[in-house]
Amino acid sequence: METLRGNAADHENACARVATQFSQRWLRNYVRGKLRRDRIYQAAYELLRSSSAPILDVGCGVGLLAFYLRERACRQPVLGLDVDARKIRYGVTIAAAQYRDIDLRFHDVGRTVPDFSGNVALVDVLHYLPPAKQTALLTHLADCVEPGGILIVRDCPRDAGPRYWITWLAERFAQVISWNLNAALHFPSRASIDGVFGAAEFERESRPLSGASPFNNHIFIFRRKQSRSPGILSATGRTRGGEPVRPAGFQPAAMF
Length: 256
Ligand SMILES: C[S@@+](CC[C@H](N)C(=O)[O-])C[C@H]1O[C@@H](n2cnc3c(N)ncnc32)[C@H](O)[C@@H]1O
What we know:
Helices cover 38% and strands 18% of the residues. It has eight helices and nine strands. Strand 1, helix 4 (64-71) and strand 2 (78-82) form a beta-alpha-beta unit. It is globular, with a radius of gyration of 18 Å. It has a single domain, classed as Vaccinia Virus protein VP39 (Rossmann fold, 3-Layer(aba) Sandwich), CATH 3.40.50.150. The strands form two sheets. A seven-stranded mixed sheet has the order 3-2-1-5-6-8-7, sandwiched between helices. A two-stranded antiparallel ribbon has the order 4-9. Helix 1 packs antiparallel against helix 2 (25-37). The chain is α/β, with parallel strands linked by helices and 256 residues long. S-adenosylmethionine is lined by residues 59-61, 64-65, 81-84, 87, 108-110, 123-125, 128, 180-181.
């Protein structure tokens, strides 16, 4: 009971500390509410806290996941990529002033992904890409997961239930007020996400992550098994037997 209470207090404090970094009041309020209510940040913390591997945060937005993890005493280097220059600007300013080893960059993952090895997060991004690009991105990101590491995907499966339509409406609203990218929406099916991760290489788990919200949020966790077979060619044509590549190099490696 004490531990649960401590964990809840640590979460609340981390949300408040991240929010205070944002100078505009509307953004501060949004960030505090988002971090407190959306269960993905706590879930990601629980999954990533015991790993020292670097984290690739794909579609990082203003950097909420990276900042939240720092405020929960996670010290892993984070490389965040996003195609929204305005959000990246907010995040870069805060990272430079407050947080070490958080590198947020303008980058379109619909075109390339960097060489990387570690853990990967892809939170609410897939549905901005058309299906073929979703598969290509997931395939590349699978290659970025180090042995024993994880890829966390959070998105809203397209199952046509009421929660799906509420999520769709909320996303359209965020687009109309110009907070989210105004691209066509392609919510993925569960099978199209799971299908990229072969059972020989990955342990797979997924569950609803809606909490008290009306949304159809689900978390998909893909953990790469410890041993990679030497010399096996990955789906992207890269060899999976060599030394892991750390994010410092950050070479855009593959054109889709
Ligand atoms: C709903 S927001 C989620 C932001 C962040 N993951 C979070 O949890 O706060 C989705 C983000 O994905 C980004 N995004 C969409 N398509 C992208 C692309 N092709 N390359 C990089 N980022 C992209 C958007 O700009 C946006 O910031």
